[in-house]
Amino acid sequence: MAAVTKQRQRSGVGGWLVPIGAVVLLAFGQSWSAYDEYNQTLDNEFRLLTSNVRIASAQINVLLRDVAFNLNETVRDHRSDKLDDLALLDDVLASRLKEMDPGVRSLVYVNGSGRVEHSATPGLKDFDSSERDYFKVHRERRYGHGLYASRPYKTSFGDLSIACSIPDLAPDSSFRGIAAAGLSPNFFDEIIRNIVPEGNGNATLFNQYGDILNRQPGMEALIGTSGAGAPFKTHLQSGKPITQIVGVSIVDGVRRAIVFGNVEGTSLIVNAARPMTDVMARWVQSSIYRALFVAICSAVILILALQAIRRQRKSEIVTLALERSEATNRERTLFLASMSHEFRTPLNAIIGYSEAVSLGAFGPIQNAKVLEYIRDINQAGIHLLHLVEDVLDISSIELGKFNSNPEPVNVAELLAAALTMTGPRARQKDLRIETLCDPAELMMIADRRRLVQVLTNLLSNAVKFTPDGGRISMTARASGGGQVLFEISDSGVGMDAEQLAMALTLFGQPDPNVARRTEGRGIGLPLSMYLVGAMGGTFSIDSQPGSGTLIQILMPSGLPRPQALAEQPS
Fold this sequence. Notes:
- By secondary structure, the protein is an alpha+beta fold.
- The chain has helices spanning 2-79, 88-99, 133-139, 189-194, 219-222, 230-238, 276-279, 281-309, 311-358, 368-398, 411-428, 448-465, 497-503, 512-518, 524-534, 562-567, and strands at residues 104-111, 116-119, 148-149, 153-154, 160-169, 175-183, 202-206, 212-216, 242-248, 255-262, 269-275, 406-410, 432-438, 443-447, 471-479, 483-490, 538-544, 548-556.
- The strands form 4 sheets. Strands 1, 2, 3, 4, 5 and 6 form a 6-stranded antiparallel sheet that branches.
- A hairpin with a 6-residue loop joins strand 9 and strand 10 (255-262).
- The protein is elongated and about 140 Å long.
């Protein structure tokens, strides 16, 4: 016995090794896949940001090329001996400024001492620029070559401006002055705005010191502030024209995927950035799905392993459950059979005696209230008997003991029988019921009692839920393929999809208040659907709130089709 127990223990431990190994391999594989997808997502984002930065750099270069050209022309004009009077240079600058982009506000020549010597704008002449960075970087030779862009500063007119300048050097390389152009801070708006990544992304234009010259969005709040944080310094230290970085912005502390790019021929640097939360949003969602997938698969694997280890016990439990289920079914069958006799016999007696008493079979009843009570007892007994019969019908269908008695029936007579049983209630509500059978002598092979039961149930429902003075239609016609199509439509309250689903369930009451007013049991509609299916037909219903309900029943006629009759030998 002990040996058997140890063998079972070893078998149990060995049985867990394979599923646990499978779970570990699955988790490792999904982790590697997630890591690879993370890198791929980041690479794709960097590729897109880099493309945007290259485009912006090229556009800014083209935009500033015209500025640089006019600044070089200004330096050449100042050196030229073609102008008899250098005072004429002011007019030349003014004419040149008119031809430049509207974002260029001023065009000046500053001599070696820092004084504005010539200006396209009279108000700037003789202005002292000696302490401005766009002058000092050239005088102190801190900027090698190309167009220099200053940090934003307030002009003498009180507005912000960005100065772009180039040096004027003598043949011996001594410093003689600068030519400068004042740009509106909005000069670069369109270019920078066009490269802003989707979502919460942003794009920024810096000078070489990290001063923000333009930022979209957030231009007004951040222009002129320093953006020279760790990512910006990393780009400068790399010495590369394009740098891809994941870093935290000094401006708002948000971790972003950032691409920096130098604008060729200038001191400008442009970047495009997008928060990592946005970049990795889909990856995070995918990772959650992966984790759920691993968890679900692991649970499935472990459950299957547990089932394999406990197979014998599971088999015993299933066998016992089947035996108990069969016993329960037998008991239910016996109960239903007993209920059929126990309920029907006294109900029939109640119905018969109450009807006989109400009709005066045992003498006239003088008290009208007593007569009313007896009639109520009769109606309650009939109602309860119908309820019992409906429940028994459903039980017999579910137990596979449904018995059908097909016989030749006249379809028009079926409609008339259903109309007869519901007519009194319809007349009380002043309802107009239209019936049509096409052709009038349409015949079929079917269980007459069951079909009348179905049509009566459905017509009764239509009468219950159609307001006074409404319209109801009940038709039957021959359909293709040797079938008969019954249609019952009304102008009643109708149902939405949720109410319809409830109404098709046994004892389902979409609106209990309405059901109580109309004496609804929640059985007629599902019973009709079950009976139609048991007789080989199809049942469909379409209902809209406020527009009424249409029910279609397609039943096999049970008769040979004309074509089949023609093919039989005479």
